[in-house]
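Annex B. Sample input.
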Amino acid sequence: MSTNDDHHLDANAAGGALREIFSVDVTAAGTSCATCAHSFTFAQTLLHAWAPGLVGRCPFCGEVVFRLVRGPGRAWLDLRGVTCLDIRMPEGAGIRAAGAGATGEGPADDT
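Annex B, continued. Sample output.
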């Protein structure tokens, strides 16, 4: 498939739709294509938005890396074309360690 056509946008155009599902900006995430193994940011995918949903293709080989379809009250996201997403989290966000208090800071020191 040729990726040099005028029938796509970059995936920044999908930012609003993806932001409704994820609490972080996924377009800034790094990813790798499951087909050709090239690395790129999610925003660099070639977005085809005229279908019933959004289809993002690898900017290197043109294979599908994601599909997003919306329905009343729900969304279907298919990421089988990526190997992973490298998402930068806001400072202070993260998974609390086992035994940490409700603030995520661990047990209080009363000494």
